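Why do we care about 3D structure at all? Because function follows from shape, and shape follows, mostly, from sequence. That is the central idea of this module. The next example makes it concrete: a single protein chain, its amino acid sequence, and then its structure expressed as tokens.
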Amino acid sequence: MAISDISNEQEGNEFDPIEFLTSLLKTIDANRSTIPPDYDRVITSPAQTGTTPQSENRLNVFYRLLGLPATRAKSNLTADELGANSAQLTQQQAKQLSFQKISQDSTLNLFLASDSGSASFFANAAAELKSRTEKLSRKQTADDYETMLTSPLPIGASTSDTLAKGRRASIIPAVVDAAIPVFPLRSRVAPLFFDGDYTISGGRERLSRPFLQHIIYMRTKVFSGASTELVAQIQSGIREATDDDALTALPTKFTKIEALIVNKFIQAIKKSAIRYKEVQQELARLQSEVAFTAAPVDNANQRSITPLSDDPTIGVTTVLGTKIQAIQKQISEQDALLISLPIESVNQSDRIRRIEDDVVLHNVHPDVFVSDFTQLINFERLQLEKQLEEIQDEERSKIQLLEGVKREVLLYSGEFSGLSIFDVLCVLYALFTIEAKFLIGLLNNDAQTRLAADPFFSSGQAKQASLAEKATVVESMDALHNKIKDAFAIASGFFSRAASGQI
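And the structure:
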């Protein structure tokens, strides 16, 4: 069987991008910190903050659960600022205390901005993290909603402020904002390569291991190398999207498990890119069938099913709404005519009199010809009510279709939520395709020390060579960012081919 035949059978057609991201977002939301960032203090207790509706943004949670490097702008806090008596602490003790407090009991893969060799990188990263948090906490408006629906973001918008035009925060740098205090404690992750269970609440609750630890386990376990055919299949898929030989470069000594996983990522990225193009086409078709305008609305049926901001009234009004209002006005005029007739006053007077009368009548019925006369002067109402029901059903149907498409646009573009399907797939692709030395280089010194002593590695099940090669954290972050951009280039290539009808 030719490689192309294998590839055609394995296009990832069973992969459901929406189901995948929805499940992942549930995990992210379950682990979000309920406390916003504080750049001037180290928060050691929720009692220090007071109430606020703001919580940790989803992108930061994703990176934190992965276990990627973390930093904060004020990483060299003094012992006094931490509430300790500096006169009683040596310089080393003060630094150690500062490290422990800022790293939130070591549950972050923290790099101090003052560390030699990476000071400039993490200082710049800290500034960008603050800007990212501010963008992701901004309240959306009806105009933002309108822009999202009429001009969906391109796939690569999350890697470039230019592409996003201020609408999306960049996912680069792939760094955790350590200025966000993570509470409740169960929302944190265990230190990377901690031996055994890392527990809280007096040992009664176990923290999950960050996913980066499992990625390192998967990529460094001793496996046979990937077959030439499998590697060629992956490269063929990438070349199909981009026709760029540079993007097909894979790590040396690519193992079978790495190749199988990366192949799945390529299929998932392709399926997602094709579907995003289909979603945009569906959105354009809906716009051509019925014009809609985003605005705060009173009608609950028109409101956004998927909330876009703190304002739950934002939804859409359609051109059908004008017709509905016109018909409702005609019905109201018919009602006003009937109410103004003396017949209604006489009927109302009769009802009051009968209530007060001692004699109860058993054959009360309308006066002769009254119902026929009412039907004569109100014959338009039945037709108006029928028209109203039909147009309201049509509007509800269009809005439901729009809501479904809008939900997919949100998940594929990451607008407002700050995390898209492509963000997740491209970051994971990068973590599985950068060289192993760069993967290890993402760990701080404490994590690398624990890694070297990890039973999995000391037992000889892992590729020891991956531990012997050293890469700095800056080199590792650069390699990760480049691979993330490569993955987005692949996704954009598939999108372009789908737009031109080539796939």
